[in-house]
Amino acid sequence: MYQILKAEELTTNIYLMVVKAPRVAKSCLPGQFVIVRTKEDSERIPLTICDYDRKNGTITIVFQIVGAGTQFMSELKAGDAFHDFVGPLGCPSEFCSEPLDELKRKSILFVAGGVGTAPVYPQVKWLKENGVLADVIVGAKTKDLLILEKEMEAEAGNLYITTDDGSYGRSGMVTKTIEDLVAEGKHYDVCVAIGPMIMMKFVCKLTKELNIPTVVSLNPIMVDGTGMCGACRVTVGDKVKFACVDGPEFDGHLVNFDEAMKRQTLYKTAEGRAFLAAKEGATHHGGCGNCN
Amino acid sequence: MDVMKKVPVREQDPKVRATNFEEVCLGYNSEEAMEEASRCINCKNAQCMKGCPVAINIPGFIEQVKNGDFNKAYEIISESSALPAVCGRVCPQESQCEGKCIRGIKGEPISIGKLERFVADYASQNGVKPTGATEKKGQKVAVIGSGPAGLTCAGDLAKMGYDVTIFEALHQPGGVLVYGIPEFRLPKEKVVAKEIENVKSLGVKIETNVVVGKSITVDELLTDEGFDAVFIGSGAGLPKFMGIPGENANGVFSANEYLTRSNLMKAFDETSTTPIMRAKKVAVVGGGNVAMDAARTALRLGAEVHVVYRRSEEELPARVEEVHHAKEEGIIFNLLTNPVEILTDENGWVNGIKCIRMELGEPDESGRRSPIEVPGSEFEIEVDAVIMSLGTSPNPLISSTTKGLEINKRKCIVAEEEFGKTSKTGVYAGGDAVTGAATVILAMGAGKNAAKGIDEYLRGLR
Ligand SMILES: Cc1cc2nc3c(=O)[nH]c(=O)nc-3n(C[C@H](O)[C@H](O)[C@H](O)COP(=O)(O)OP(=O)(O)OC[C@H]3O[C@@H](n4cnc5c(N)ncnc54)[C@H](O)[C@@H]3O)c2cc1C
Ligand SMILES: Cc1cc2nc3c(=O)[nH]c(=O)nc-3n(C[C@H](O)[C@H](O)[C@H](O)COP(=O)(O)OP(=O)(O)OC[C@H]3O[C@@H](n4cnc5c(N)ncnc54)[C@H](O)[C@@H]3O)c2cc1C
Ligand code: SF4
Ligand code: SF4
Ligand code: FES
Hints:
By secondary structure, chain A is α/β, with parallel strands linked by helices.
């Protein structure tokens, strides 16, 4: 069993938990994920590692309620425990293995959407620890759904916040902020975009035009997370990859997003949709590509 | 009684079992087992033993069954096999022990597998347990993977007095025995869980949720965690796909995904939260045990099922008993047929499979006649799901993160057959990770041999 040391609702339907998992904390790096099971008969749910504390042996996860599995998870409190917590899975972000002097010469832009802010956080933090300040754009539908603002502020070079409805920070989608920054004369060598599939798709469309190489973190349906089932396969360029072992980060300009979005709907039933509409409330706005 | 014929074994009626996940074969009772045992002529130079990869003393245990001393029979089997309840159920006996039985020349061979299963089930129902070590050696061994290879190696080492920990990537131990082979062939609670309990009762610790190569490396096990030797029994879990158009459509699954959802995650049970596609008409591509298991699972979940296989019935690699059972249950075999494309509707869901007819040409390196396409013979089968069951290969997670561990072209770990020694000192390997996808009994045999090799190695260090 894996003890929950802290459980906090960050905003409507988005939760943060700190979990005791010494093996994971000892070896994880930014970009990797875990798979958790709430109870003995629960589903396996993949979640990105949002922070880690090697000394105390803890992992931080941030998740959004989207279905029954994440709903049950959200009911856990500090002092409860996860039945299973396995990781770190997947490959670390590419920059973790780049020579530092090369990395330091690069100008990096992160684009985070919604709950995708959480997985962006450890990457920005890792870069700062290694002397690289990155620019970060965080997009949310509305002010209330913004998460980790203070934490991100402390680690980013420049932080640009934008809300779809203009209720906080800039106004409009993240793509608009990218366009604005480039128009202001900012130059970026690489972009890392993490968020709903549909957001990553449009960010990639734009950065391709702008000629900025872009990394995305995919979240297809997974079962084992070790390369055993092929449920997570995605088409990248002309190759089929297993996101759990070959990814989850890929060259965004080569990802077949339309196929990936179709595959995400695989186990969606009418029943599931009803559950989502009832439970998700304010966050259920159709932007994430999980429902159509 | 006709001594030329096997005592028939009771089975669930095909029509009934096609709608449930209960075990198909009900096994012998004591009278039936003793009667079948009395057909064995207790050969001096028993050919059957040469067919068994772990050389169980077959005439010896059958003699005890004949006498009604089932505990003694279990003791004899236990000398060579750690998982008799499993092997008695899933070994391809027709090509192993029973394939060599003298009785089989003129009549039907002795039902060795069914007798072995009877003895193991008897022992488990009557609480007979294998006995552990009395004296501890004080050296630690890490075993990676809890399939038949890992469980056997761990059990044997624990019996010798070593301190053994199994590291398993999934949340439940058992390997293919829990995630692959379905309930109706190998009951999980009654058989697999019991066998795992037996291994634990020998003192073996099992740590689940540890992916070696990610959570920890083999080198770290040896240096940081103080293990004196490592056995790698990580299986061959990586599924193959064909690379044909439409293969990523919604409704195309690997057999591993489909079976894992049903077996490990219990999706067959209506009360489970794990989703599984309940298709109306399914094409299962492939002809091995895995294909039969996927096909018969889909059938039980309510589908009409077509097995699409490119060679003829004679070449079907699955166990004869499974093919026979599949046919009885109503699985349709489209033989000498190969898929060329998966057809989809406008939303990306499977709505058919385009196939081409094949004919058999000259034998290839494997000795089997190789299939050749018949030009212009394409045709379509309307289906809403396709399950790819084309074989698996070892996962590179361990080999790519272990310094100095040699692998071959097929990504299999290179290990000496006799004792499972790899190119890295103190590291042994066996089972599907070394041979590629094979059988339970071969994996067990490899686990046993490696346990001897590791014992030898650790003696040298003392
Ligand atoms: C590598 C990876 C990292 C992830 N990191 C995070 C994270 O940090 N925070 C977070 O909130 N979510 C993350 N996700 C998504 C998260 O795993 C899913 O939201 C979760 O599995 C849904 O489970 P559920 O039982 O609540 O929903 P379900 O009832 O299973 O499904 C609800 C809806 O979500 C879709 N869905 C199901 N499984 C997934 C999945 N694995 N990914 C995407 N959609 C899915 C379904 O098609 C359905 O439309 C990640 C996914 C992956 C693969
Ligand atoms: C559906 C199906 C049906 C079959 N039917 C039959 C049959 O009827 N008869 C027969 O004889 N054989 C059958 N087989 C084959 C047989 O099951 C295998 O040959 C046998 O299980 C191999 O045993 P193993 O111990 O080498 O590997 P596995 O049983 O594959 O076990 C390997 C274990 O290692 C774990 N693992 C892998 N990588 C790591 C890692 N990095 N860290 C930690 N743990 C790891 C896996 O999760 C798994 O639990 C079948 C196989 C399948 C898939
Ligand atoms: S282990 Fe398999 S091959 Fe050996 S006797 Fe038993 S059924 Fe036959
Ligand atoms: S070969 Fe057949 S008859 Fe002879 S000992 Fe073995 S099982 Fe009995
Ligand atoms: S999740 Fe099973 S192979 Fe990736």
